[in-house]
Design brief:
TPR-like_helical_dom_sf; TPR_rpt; mainly alpha; Tetratricopeptide repeat protein; 0% strand
């Protein structure tokens, strides 16, 4: 684990502990939760999925202590679903993905246009989760949407778009369509 992230957690905890309870703000709590969330990303990167899940769930519980807000927990839930899918807990992962997708569908068209690009990593990871869960059609559909949007925003030769082409190739290979995979 990175010393820098451990230090961030210690500093956040010291800050919160130094305040009278009534002086702790929502910003303090969200920053503390974000520090735990950031640690979970380090753990995911190192392949420590079970441990990452504990950190992710702690971040979600901390945020929920000030009232449930799906927007603030969206990224943590995404990474939780990724960890669950890698650990073979597909049903739990898919339930989370479908819940977040339903929340996105509830956004107004105006807001959806505003956050279109910000949602691209979510859509990409949804496809990964579908792929890990064996739902090739959902993975294919999600990745086609990512490919379309990344092409529009980053161009067909942009690195983000090229990553999407690679992932499409993996999905096509898993679907048994080797000519399309090439």
């Amino acid at each position: 684990m990175g010393k820098r992230f451990e230090k961030a957690l210690v500093l956040r905890q010291q800050h919160i502990n130094s305040l009278p309870a009534r002086a702790v703000t929502e910003v303090d709590i969200n920053n503390y939760a974000n520090a735990w969330h950031n640690m979970s990303i380090v753990l995911l990167s190192d392949g420590l999925y079970e441990e990452a899940l504990r950190y992710i769930e702690l971040a979600i519980r901390i945020r929920n202590s000030i009232g449930e807000n799906p927007t603030f927990n969206g990224e943590s839930e995404l990474f939780k679903a990724l960890a669950l899918s890698v650990l073979g807990r597909s049903e739990e992962a898919l339930k989370l993905v479908r819940s977040v997708q339903a929340e996105v569908k509830e956004l107004s068209d105006e807001l959806l246009q505003t956050v279109r690009v910000a949602l691209l990593p979510f859509r990409f990871h949804w496809a990964e989760i579908f792929l890990n869960s064996g739902d090739m059609e959902a993975a294919h559909k999600a990745m086609l949407e990512v490919l379309k949007l990344r092409g529009e925003h980053f161009g067909v030769g942009g690195r983000a778009t090229l990553d999407t082409y690679y992932m499409m190739g993996v999905i096509e290979q898993k679907r048994g369509n080797l000519s399309a995979a090439k």
